[in-house]
Amino acid sequence: MKAEARDNSSTSMRLNQLPADIGGSHPSPSVATPDFASTPAEKKAAADAIDGPILKDTRKAGNWADESNSAAVKAFRAKDGDGWATSSALKKADKDWDKQVEALCKRLASESALLRDTSIRFQSHDIGVGNRLKGVSKLSDIN
Question: In whole angstroms, how large is the CA radius of gyration of the chain?
Answer without folding.
Answer: 29
